[in-house]
């Protein structure tokens, strides 16, 4: 059995990418298009999970979610649980159901972003809110943001595909 190479620079680079995505989270409104604000962490975690193991994806999702929960208000463990379960589901799907190509990554990213924003809508806006305001949030913010976030999978996919080739060579 061939052993995988361990490149400490790739590990450090991954930590820096995730840290930069968490630190820049409050500045995502700068690249918003009308009401659609992307969430860079979702396609980043999706691309990482496509090429990683289940354990790596779970740890990355848990730590990223915990960092997001620490900087957001009122999201008690929502991001931690959602991102960890999403990362594990993406890894399982990528290893068992999908090929590791850009079309599959785009579909997975669209599904991940849609599920995340719909869950966020259900947990924080749909329950106990006025129906008109709730639907307005869903149609004017959540769904456009999910689509905008899903499109950002392309640079992250190619980056992690390169990392995967380096680690497996």
Number of helices: 7
Structural class: mainly alpha
- H and E order: HHHHHHH
What summary fits the major beta sheet? none
Number-wise, the strands total 0
Contiguous uncertain segments of 5+ residues: none
Q: What is the overall shape? A: globular
The radius of gyration is 16 Å
What fraction strand?
Answer: under 5%
Tally of distinct domains: 1
Spatial separation of the terminal alpha carbons: 13 Å
Question: What value does the average pLDDT take?
Answer: 89
In which range does the helix fraction lie? Answer: over 70%
Note down, in words, how this protein is organized.
There is one protein chain. This protein has 169 residues and is mainly alpha-helical. The chain has one domain. Helix 2 runs parallel beside helix 4 and helix 3 runs antiparallel to helix 4. The chain is globular.
Structure described in brief:
The chain has helices at residues 8-23, 41-51, 54-71, 78-96, 102-126, 131-151, 153-168. The chain is 75% helix and 0% strand.
Key structural traits:
169 residues, mainly alpha, 75% helix
Give the arrangement of secondary structure elements:
Elements (H helix, E strand, L loop, with lengths): L7 H16 L17 H11 L2 H18 L6 H19 L5 H25 L4 H21 L1 H16 L1
């Amino acid at each position: 059995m061939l052993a995988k190479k361990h490149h400490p620079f790739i590990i450090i680079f991954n930590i820096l990418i995730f840290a930069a995505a968490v630190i820049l989270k409050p500045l995502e409104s700068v690249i918003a298009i009308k009401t659609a604000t992307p969430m860079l962490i979702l396609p980043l975690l999706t691309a990482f999970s496509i090429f990683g193991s289940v354990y790596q994806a779970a740890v990355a999702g848990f730590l990223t979610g915990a960092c997001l929960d620490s900087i957001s208000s009122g999201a008690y463990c929502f991001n931690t649980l959602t991102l960890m379960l999403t990362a594990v589901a993406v890894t399982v799907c990528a290893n068992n159901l999908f090929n590791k190509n850009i079309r599959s990554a785009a579909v997975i990213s669209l599904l991940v972003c849609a599920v995340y924003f719909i869950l966020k809508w259900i947990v924080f806006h749909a329950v106990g809110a006025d129906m008109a305001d709730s639907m307005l949030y869903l149609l004017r913010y959540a769904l456009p943001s999910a689509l905008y976030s899903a499109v950002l999978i392309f640079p992250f996919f190619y980056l992690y595909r390169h990392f995967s080739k380096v680690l497996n060579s």
